[in-house]
C-alpha cells in the first residue's frame, strides 16, 4: 500500500462542489483500496482571501488566483473543474491540450457546440475525463442499475423523475450566478434536471424524443451573490432580470419504448433537495429518493400473491455496491460519499487506462437533451434527441 | 327525522360502481342528517341472473333488464348511471327528458359532443345532475381545498399528479370493455386520468393548455370479460386489438400560471390504485395519496425555521369535512365512504334545489380536456383547452 | 338468499360502540354471504331522548329504557352489550339465562370473578358468546395470523405492542365514566391495553408471566360526561378524583419463550389511536399499525440477500381475509369494517352451532391478565398468569 | 488556522470503532473550526499484521502491539480506547495516571466497581474524559434536546426506546467476544441498550427505578471470531456457551415522573440497526430513528386543530446543530459524522479546559443502570437506581 501512486490534483473553484470534491480526495483511500491516491497540489479561485481560506481548510498545498497559472504545470496530473458552467469549456480544453486528466461538474457546458469541442479535445489528447453526475454513485442507485441489468424488472414501461428544490421561492432571494443564463446556461434545467436526465439514461437507456415547457415564476430579483452552497445575500434596491428557468417539465419517449416524465424546479416549497425517481417494469418496480438515499424501494411481481409489496431495502449490506467499505449493515452514509465513489471510479480509470463513466460523451448527450428541452419549450413542439 | 322525504332511485348498471353507489344510498342516513333518504326501487342490467343477484344483495325492490322500462316510471326520482361509458349519453338524455335527477359515472361521455348534448338536456329539463368524481369527496381532499381557498398555500406554482394502476400488466389479461375504444372512449386516460384532471380543476382551477402522449404497450389481448371490479377472465385462443391507451402522460399550464404534470397508467407494476397529487405554493405545499386517503401531508413555509417539515395530518378530526359523522379521531374510513359523501351532496342539492358539484358542466369541461389530450397525443402538439 | 334466516337483535347501549355494532348488522349482508341476517328489534338506553334518536338513526324498530324489559322477550335472539363495563356481568348473565346469544364489548367485566360467572352462565345455558376484540378482524391482522400459523416467521422471539392515545392529555378533560374505576374497572389498561393483550394471545399464544407499572398523571379532573366516542364536556368548578390508570407499561414472558413489551396510554400526545405491534421471529418479522390498518409490513429472512426489506403489503387483495367482499385491490377499508367481520363470525357461529372467537373464554383469560397487571403494579412484582 | 495546536492520539484497538474514531480525527478540521487538530501518532493491536494494515489505511504514523508501550509516551496527549470492554478499566486507569486525556467506547467497564475506579482515576489526575455515546451527537437528537430544554414538549410523560438488531439470529453465528460475559460484560444490554439508556438520560433526565428481564434465545454457538463490524466466522464442530443476554426488556420510572420502556435485542429479524425512541410530553411529541437519522418527527399540540400532525423535519438546516458545517439543506449526512461531532466536543473540552459530555460520570451512572437491570432480571424485582 505504501507503494501507492500519487495523482496530483489542481482544483479550479472552491465553493459547494469544491468542498465536496476535496473531501472525496481526502477520504478515498481511508475507505477504498484504490491503486492511486490524491495529492492536493493547488486550489484556484479569483478571490484571494476566500481561496486561501479554502486551501487551508481543504488541505491543499497552495493556491492560485488564475487557473491559467496551473493548467500547464508539470506537477499536475488532474484538473478538477468546479467553476460556474460558462467557464468549463475554456478550462477543460486548455487542460486537455496540456495532457491533464479532467473531471468537471455538470452540466458539461453552456451548449452542445461547446460540449462537443470539449469532447473532441479530450479525445484528441487521450486524457481521462469524467463529468460529476454523482447520483449515479449512490449505492442504492447502483443496485437499482444492477437489478435492471439482471432483468429483475423486465421490460421497462415508465420512468418518472422529480428533482424538487425550494431555495429561491422567496422573491427576495437574489439574482446570483445560478440565475443568469450567460453564466449557468439554464436554471433548474441544467442544475438539477440534468441529474435526473443522466440518471434516466444510466438506468434505462437513451432518449428518443421529448416535449417540454419552462417557466420563470419570479422575473426580477435583487442583485446579489451566493454565500454558500444554496444560500445567498442580495440588495433589494437594485433589481435585475432572471434569465433562466425556475422550473421545467418534460415528457419523454425512450428508444426502448418506455414513457418518461421529468420535472425540475426550485419552487417546490417544502422540498429542499428531493431528487427522486420511480421505474415500472413488467416484472417489478423501483422507487428511490435522495433524501433517503440509502434506501431502495423494490417491488417484485413474482413474489407470492398476498405477500407482494414494495420492499424497503436499506442498501447498506456487503452485497450493495461500495458500502461494504464503510460500516456494518444498517449504518447509513450520506451525500458526500457519492463523490468518494465517483473519484474512486475516476482514479481507477486513470490507473487502468480505461475511460470512467459518466464522462464527456455522457456530457455531450446530456447537453443535447438539455438543448432539445430548451428548444422544445421555446418552439412548443416535440424534439428528437 | 321520521318525516324524512324519500327519493326513489333506479340504478342502471350493477357492477363495481353499482355496488359502490348502492352502498352509499344505504349508509347515507345512518351517518348523516341528510333531509332526504333513498328508496332503492329498481336495479337494471342486461344479464338477468346477475342483476337479480345484485338486486337481492344490494337491497333493491326489483330489477329490470332494459333501462328503457324504468326511465319514465313515475315512481322514480333519480336515475343513477353506472354502465359502460358509451351508454351514458343516451340514458342520461332520456332520463333528463323524463324529468329525472341524474347521477352518472365518469367520464361523462365518449366525447365532447355527447357530453354537451347531455348538459343541454339536463339544463333544458331543469333536473339536478352530478358526475361521480368521488375523490373530491375524500375528507382529506376537501380539507386540502379549504387550505388552498383560505390562502394557506398562497400562489400555486406546481400541480403534479399520478394515477398508477397495474391490473393489466399481464399480457394475458383479456380484452374487456375497458380496453375497447367504442365502449369506454379511452383507456387509462378516461378511466383514471379523468379523476386526476378533475381533482386538479377542483383544487387549483382551470387548465389553459396541454401537451400529451399516449401509449398502448400491449397491442393485442385475448378476448374476454370483466369478472369483478378490476378482474377478468379471457380466452387466449382468440386475440383482439386493444384500441385504447394503456398509459398517458401530460404537461399542462393552468390559467393561474401553475405548471402541471399528469400521468395515468395501468402499467405501473406494484401500484394497485395509487392516485396521488402534490401541490406546491409559495406559502406551503400539500401531498396526498388515495392508498392513505385519510392522511394529508401539509407543509407551511411560515413554520419556525428548523421546525419546518411536512406534517402528516390524519384527517379524522371534527374539524375535517364529513368525518365528524363517523368515529373518534384516529379511526380511519375507507374508499366506499367517498360515495356516501357524494350522494349526501347530491341529495342536498335535490332538497335545496341547487346544483351539486361536480356536475355535467364539470363533465363537459373534463371531456374537453380528455379530448384535447387525445388530440395532442395524435397531432403531437400543444392544444388549448 | 331470500330464504335467509333472521336473527333478532337487542342492543343494550347506543354510543360509540352501539353505533359501530348497529352499522355492522346493517352492512353485513350487503358484503357477505352470511347465512343469517339481523333484524334490529330494539335498542336500549336510559336517556329516552338520546336512545330514541339512536333508534331512528341506527334503524331499530323500537327502543326501551330498561334492559330488563327486553332480556326475556321471546322475539329476541341476540343480546348485544355495549354499555359501560360494570354492567356487563349482570346483563350478560341474565341474557344467558334467558337463552340468548350474547356479544359484549371488552373488557368482559370488572374483574376475573365476574368474568368467570359470565362464562359459567353462557356455558350452562348453551348459548353462543363473543367478546368484541374487533382488531382481530382487521384483514391485515388475520393475514399476519395466517403467516405465523404457516410458519413463515418461525420461532417467535419478540412481541412489542403500543396502544397510544392522547384524548385526555388536557387536564380539563372531565372525569367521565371511563376515568372511574367503579364503572370502567381500569383506564388505559382495560380500554385499550386489553386490545393489545388480546391481539398478542391471538397471534403468538398465551402469556406466562408479567410485570407492570401503572400511572395516573392527572389525579383530579372536572366532573363531566362523554359527549361522543372519545369527546366530553365538563364543569371545572367541581373536581373529582381520577381512579383509573392514565398509562400502563408491561413486560411479559410468553409460554412459547417469547418476550413481550406492552404499553397503553392516553397521554401519548399526537397519537389519536395508534394501536400497533411488531413481531420478530427467526424467519421473519411483521409490523402493523391500526392508523394504516390495511397495510402489513412483512420481512422474510430468506429473501435474497441485498433484496431483503420490510414489504409494505396492502392487504386488499382477494388472497387477504374478508376484503375480497369489498372493492378491487388497492381500495382501502376502514375502522368500521372490523365490526362487520366480527358480526359475520358471530352469525356463522350461531348458524353452524359452533363457538365463534374471541368469546367469553378469551374474555376470562384477558381479564386474568388485566388483573395480574393491576396486581403486579400494586405489589411491584412479577405475577404468573 | 495554521497556528492550530496539535493533539497527539494513540488509538488502542483498530476494528469497527477504531475505524470510526480514526475517520473522525481525520475529517474534524475539514468541516469544523476546532481549535485543535489531531496527529495520529500510533495505533495499537495485538495482531501485528492486522494492526499494520490498519495503521496504513487509517493514516497513523506507527503501530504497536502492546498498549503498555504507548501509555506513558511523552509525545501522546490522548488515549482513545476502542478495545473489548473488559480491558477498558486497566487501560484507562493507566492512561489517567500517565496524565493522558481519555476517550473510551461504551459501556465504560464491566461493572460499577471498575467504572468508579476509572472515574476516580481521571478525576485524581485532572485529565479530560469522554465516553462514546455517539448517538447524542446526531444533529436531530441534539435538536430534540433543544426542543425539550426550550419547553416545547412541556412535562414529559413517556419515553419509549427500542434498539433492534438481528445479526445473531442465525444459530450458526459464532461465539465471538461480544457473546462472552467475561469480555463484554453483557450482550445486547451493554452493547446497544446502553446507548438507549444514555439517550434517555441525555434527553429527559435521570432514572428512578427499573424492572427488567433478559433472555438468551440461543444458548450454545460455534466457537469463532469477529471478522468485521458485526460479521464473524465460526467453526460449528466446536460449541461453546453463550454467557450474555440476546435481548433485554425494561420498564423504568424517571425522577421527573415519566414512564419509560426499553428494549434491546439482537433477535429482531429485519432490523439491522434500528435505534429509535419516542417521547411524549404535554405540549408535544418527538420520534426519531437512527436508520433515518437526519429526520426528526415532531408534533406540537398547539398547532391549529385540523392541521396537527407529526412534522417530518429534515435536520439539515443551518438552524440544526453541527450540520451547517456540511452541505446545503436537504443533503444528508451519515453514521460516521456522529463521531466527528463527538471528537469536536472532546477537543473543545481539552482546548478550553472543560469536561466534555458524556464523560466517565455518565459512564458510571450508565453502568449503575446496566447493573441494576442485570440485578433486576436475576432477582425478578424492581431496583432503585
From TrEMBL, chains A, B, C, D:
Keyword Signal applies: no
Segments forming domain GFO/IDH/MocA-like oxidoreductase: 142-287
Entry keyword set: Oxidoreductase
Gene3D superfamilies: Dihydrodipicolinate Reductase, domain 2, NAD(P)-binding Rossmann-like Domain
Pfam families listed in its UniProt record: GFO_IDH_MocA, GFO_IDH_MocA_C3
InterPro entries in the record: Gfo/Idh/MocA-like_OxRdtase_N, Gfo/Idh/MocA_oxidrdct_glycsds, GFO_IDH_MocA-like_dom, NAD(P)-bd_dom_sf
Boundaries of every Gfo/Idh/MocA-like oxidoreductase N-terminal domain copy: 8-131
Protein name: Gfo/Idh/MocA family protein
